[in-house]
């Protein structure tokens, strides 16, 4: 339980970092059909929609992490 909670905490910290550094425009994505994605088509937003999503993401407030949980995560993973 302790490891899974730490893993989720670390993932929740890394996802915004990865998401903010990886910018892919819709025009660069390869075409995909529902058959090669497990039955779910991939979204291909236009440039306006993609820019709006990025702006909405960037405008969100950062979540404060409980210092006790943060320290437990650091201790369990050896991260600094």
Describe the 3D structure:
This protein has 80 residues and is mainly α. The chain has a domain at 1-21 and 63-80. It is 55% helix and 0% strand. It has three helices and no strands. The protein has helices at 2-21, 47-59, 67-77. Helix 1 packs across helix 3. It is elongated. It starts with a helix and ends with a helix. The mean pLDDT is 76.
Question: What's the helix and strand layout?
Answer:
Layout: H1 2-21, H2 47-59, H3 67-77
Helix pairs in contact: 1-3
Number of strands: 0
Oligomerization status of the protein chains: single chain
| CA distance, first residue to last residue | 22 Å
Radius of gyration over alpha carbons?
17 Å
**Which range best describes the helical content: under 10%, 10-25%, 25-40%, 40-55%, 55-70% or over 70%?**
55-70%
Residue runs with pLDDT of under 50 for 5 or more positions: none
H/E element order? HHH
Strand content: under 5%
The 3D shape can be described as elongated
Helix tally equals: 3
Major β-sheet annotation: none
Structure classification: mainly alpha
Average pLDDT figure:
76
Short summary:
The chain is mainly α.
List keywords for this structure.
single chain, about 80 residues, mainly alpha, 3 helices, about 55% helix, about 0% strand
